[in-house]
Design brief:
This protein is of the alpha+beta class. Helix content is about 45%, strand content about 30%. The chain has a 3-stranded antiparallel sheet. Strands 3-4 form a two-stranded antiparallel sheet. A hairpin with a 3-residue loop joins strand 1 and strand 2. The longest helix has 20 residues.
Length: about 100
């Protein structure tokens, strides 16, 4: 599903115009982004949890040249699906 298809489906379901739906979706994503930038987790009931995880620096080795180098620490995004999503996916796996 593309972004435009999502907006069209939401607009139809909510009875809004596509412009209103697009603005609402952009505002929602903006709020989620700003919270994740501040290292706050975002829990959407029935969907899942978005959170940031800090990966420590580590030493890696090139298998060909055996050269060791330092991989700097980084922050990555993690998503844990909610129970509703997990149950729906299990039903899909069984039906296929």
């Amino acid at each position: 599903m593309t972004n435009q298809e999502l907006i069209a489906a939401l607009a139809k379901r909510l009875g809004w115009t596509q412009r209103q739906t697009s603005e609402m979706l952009e505002a929602t994503i903006s709020i989620i982004n700003s919270n994740l930038e501040e290292s706050n987790s975002v829990n959407i009931q029935g969907f899942g949890l978005f959170e940031t995880k800090k990966k420590a620096e580590r030493v890696s080795v090139n298998p060909v040249s055996k050269q060791r180098f330092l991989v700097p620490p980084k922050i990555s995004l993690a998503f844990r699906p909610g129970q509703t999503i997990k149950e729906n996916l299990k039903k899909l796996e069984i039906n296929e």
